[in-house]
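Table S5 (text form). Sequence records supplied for joint modeling of the two-component complex.
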Amino acid sequence: MKTNYLLPHKYKILGWILFIIGIIYGLVFACSGYDYEPIQIKVLSIFNEGLLHGNDLRLFEIIETGISSELASIAIIVGGLIVGFSKEKIEDEFIYKLRKDSLVWAIIFNYFILTLTIIFIYDLSFFHVLIYNMFTPLLFFIIRFNFLKLKSKSHEE
Amino acid sequence: MKNSIKVQRAIHDMTQADLAQKVGVSRQTINAMEKNKYVPSTVLSLKIAKLFKKPVEDIFFLEAND
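The corresponding structure-token record, covering 223 residues in total, follows.
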């Protein structure tokens, strides 16, 4: 099966490591009330409405800030993409179909859950939903894909 | 679509793994096809038919609701 967007199988382990470290770091950060900032560096901020500090719009400035959330987010996203889109040991058309079906399932499931949270979660609590929803499509996809793979393995002759 | 892969395998005395390796797919793929959970692509169907030296229609056949 030829696909042009899949990484070689050997990257999968790297993906899992990044993905899991990202999730753990992200959860620690979330549990600290989004306050755990051991790394402070100067970054380029291209757009800042300044909702928390007055209301002046600032464009393209260098600011110093904690980058815990950024590191965790990037690790989860990059790790998750690598896990979901690196080849299996034997990459064939059946695996391709499982991956595609899992993606469709994940998108539908994610937006179903999001719709429920829109209806039932209000005020600033919805902020948590927005944060988790950055990662849930990838997370649901990876869970569903691995679940289908396991299921196809367990039904032997 | 149904198929007689399992029967053909028995005739040629092949395991799922043997067949999978010969046509370049995973054993899970052969298993899913035999259980009618996966409809193979035309390419894979032709490969399997060629391996068993039979016309495709002798191994894969349509069902009433196809």
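Note: Chain A has a mean pLDDT of 91.
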